[in-house]
Amino acid sequence: MNTVYSVHDDGLASGLVEVQTHLSNGLPTMQIIGTVGKSLDEAKDRIRSAFSSASLDLPRKKITVNITPSDLPKDGSHFDLAIALSVLLESKRIPPLPKNTVILGEIGLDGSIRPIRGLLGKMLIAKEAGFTSFIIPAKNLLQAKLLPSVNLLATDHIKSLVRDLSTDEGPPFLHTDSGARIRFSGATESLDFADVIGQDLAKRALEIAAAGQHNVLLSGPPGVGKSMLAKALISIMPPLNRDEVIQITHLHSLVGGNSRLITERPIRSPHHSSSDVAIIGGGQRPKPGEVTLSHKGILFLDELPEFKRTTIESLRQPLEDREVTVSRAKQSIRYPADFLLIATKNPCPCGYYGSSKPCVCTPLEIDRYQKKLSGPLLDRIDLHITVDSVDHAALLEEQRTTTSETSETIRKRVLDTRASQEKRFSSPSRKNGQMTNKEVKQHAKLSADAKEFLDKAATSLDLSARVYMKTVKVARTIADLDSSDTISLKHITEALQYRPVTTS
Hints:
The chain has 504 residues and is an alpha/beta fold.
């Protein structure tokens, strides 16, 4: 009896599984055992049709396929190829496979090998277990080549795979060495900061947000440029590194786009009618939501109060923990959610409260609208900016003003600031906005007058403990942008400009 290997990955009990096949006398049927789900049980019909289409003889015996550990619930079409090769091995149709080989792929009725979701995650699980050779679908090859020091055999049809495995020279595996070279994309250049007229305070806040990974809420009447500012933010974000490309590509492949590489920071902008599951993730068969698909990128929530209250409040955990836990009766899955939140809101339902245009809302409507955002949620947002109207005469000027900095100039400062944080935390993934209270105490380094001023401001403004610490984190980023080791009074006063607004 021969054994081949595949991967089970449901977030709770991930790991290698063994696929064993036994041929015995009896009616020519195929049975798959080992606590399998419906999709996996249907593999026998897909394999039977694929063998017929590829002119491969399916043994006319009773075929029993066992997928171990047998007590672990397993499902998914990515086991198809492993089962098919196990049958071919047991019937001596192909020679033994190289050791430490993992097989992943779905089989079509015509014998084609189709791409699977989450390939990179499954390969990483196998690699951690010591497996370095993989037989995968050809359309997943672009993703798989990102991993270093692995051997890959990509195939698009079961018939061609059998031919490759049966050659005298052995299977033509491709070794990735240090991993495929990635053509990293730069930031999207369709909207430059210099093209945004005015709004200097908002631009400065977004620079701080990009440098220290601080969440932002832009408030103001309609048409003043809140959405434009949010969309311009991606142009000053740093490029992705290799590890981020692998992680983001894997997360996006879990919901589709199986063969696509993600080389730009994602910017996700879900509609306010999106469900809680669409935003946070989950479902009957759990998948990542928008907070996970924006991992290492930007989650843009336009008109935040228009989202359902439950959706808004569900953002608390990912904003605080940088991950989401989706719990179900049978499984619990954790998805990363390290995103930069950019949200916008109007001051009232009509949008013109406090502006030059007359507001038609009643005091009750304004109060109810503003209270859609709870205090605990607002506390988790570092930078609160009021965006005012701009001078109409400047909107059609063809030349950029001399005071307007380009995204490229701002981006260089952001990169320098992130480099100083990487040195401080000895980690490329840690940012000032993610500091724990212990790290704040260790790295804050407030001057005496800055500490005294912050304490007085916290008392007079009635800042919560969370807002107090977030103010220090923002001030730390401002000091880094100023190339200062110490947080001075001017850094604290600027950080206090962005304190949370009240909702009453």
